Each structure stands twice: as structure tokens, then as C-alpha cells.
Amino acid sequence: MIETVPHKHEETKRIALIVTGLSGAGKTSVMRSLEDLGFYCVDNLPIPLLLPFLKLAFNGPSYLGKVALGIDARGEQFLNSLAPEIQRIKETADECLLKVIFISAQQQTLLKRFQETRRKHPLANRISIEQAIDRERKLMEPLMNLTDLTIETDGLTIHELRRLVSAHFAQGQLRELTVNVVSFGFKYGVPAESNLVYDVRFLPNPYFVPALKEIDGRNQLIQDFLFTQAVVQDYWNQLSSFLHYMLTRFHEEGRFCATIAIGCTGGKHRSVACAEKIGQQSWQNVRFIITHRDVGKE
Fold it and tell me: What does pTM read for this prediction?
């Protein structure tokens, strides 16, 4: 258990992030972004030093209110003890908000990145990179059950990744539930990071209206076309009521992030308009980030 002593910063919640994940997925970029946000970052911390470091950070002479600790498969010999240690800290350290951030990507993405950078996978000793990635996934499996946020970096540029980290962890944001609302087209696939997916393909389609075909759902003409129709109004009333209830429960549970995906056929009209409508809501303790993944792909 992390024991704390009175401090002049007592009113500030102590925040500790465990940043882990697959090699090549972007953990270093996430750590750098957190450092820019004022987190005290330590990469590749030996797992046996986790608890002593947190005690020193929050009770030592140099008070550290926000820390981010990078842990990866290079500490392979200690990984079996990491998950139980994190669970114990979460259950006993009421004064410390401990969250686990897992950075991931698909196999082909990781292979491409290692080929482009010509770097060696940390576990690729006498085995291929493909085998090393598979081995690392298995080693990291116990942490997946403790993950509070998974960031899939396959489709993200370095700038988009930094903006995402900033949206989640900028000063004050951990007291809110950050909801990433993603519009998408089913023809391009469902976003892998989705917690909840809503299909709006049954709604009237502006694509078949010649004057509306070329503009997207951010345009007021599309929104007027949709939200003046009874079927859309009825769907919106039920969807918004459920989302408000669900996000309220999420916040009460202690979650600080969620991803909601809204899909139509091409990700241009109906899903975009619905995502924009959600983003206009002013709900207590909820902050929306709107992303239109497939606008422009046509």
C-alpha cells in the first residue's frame, strides 16, 4: 500500500500512469507527449522498483504530482509479478489514481515500422521479428485485463497520437470522462478501438439527394435534412438518452475515456451528422472529441 503524508499539494490528486504495450507501437512517443504535459516520466523502469518509486514520488522531498512509468517486455523476467502488483496498488492506494495505458498495433503495422526504422525488436534474439512480436503479445496478455485505456496506433500519425494523448491527459482532464466519437463508413471497416458501435444506415440517406450528395454531414444542410425527419428525431431522442445514462455510469465507475463509433455506409453523411450532434451536447463531467475518420475517402 502507498502511504502518504500531508503535503502542501494535498488537494491535488496524485496521478500515476503505467505506459506499456507492444514494441514499435508508439510507447516512446506517448511518453514524450506526457512529458510535454508535465508528467515526470521514467522509461523502462525495473518492475521491482515500481512501488518504491511511487512512494518516493508522492512522499519524498521533491513532490511529483504526476508520473508516467514506461514498462515493456525488456523487463521480461519480472513481467509475471507486474499484473498482481498493479492490482494491489489499485485496490489499496486510495490517494493515488493509477491507470494502465496499453499502446498497440496490428502485426503488419509493427513489421512495417521495424523494416522502415531498421531497428531490432528487443525480443528478437535468435528468432524472427514475427516470432518476437507473437512472443511479446503473449507476455503482455496479463496486463490487458488491467488496462484502462488502449490506444491503437495503426492509423495515427505522430501528430494525431500527440493530440490524442493531450486530449486525455492535459491538466484537469482526468477529472472528466473523455469520449472520442468517431464517424466511419462500414465499407472501410469498424474502428478497432471502439467500445460501442452504432449503425445508422437505416436512416434516410442524403447521398440520394442530388443537392446534398457532394457535401458531408458537417454541413447544416445535411443536418437539417436529417433532423427534421420524424424517424431521425425518434432515433436521436432514444440514442441521446441512452448515451447520457451510460456515460454518467461510466464516470461514476471511475473510467476516464471511452470511444463511441457511429457508422453509415460511406462515413460521409449520416454518421458524420450524428457524431456532430453528439459533440454539441453539454453533459456534466463529459468532454467530447469528434473525429471523422472516412470523410474525403470517396
Answer: 0.56
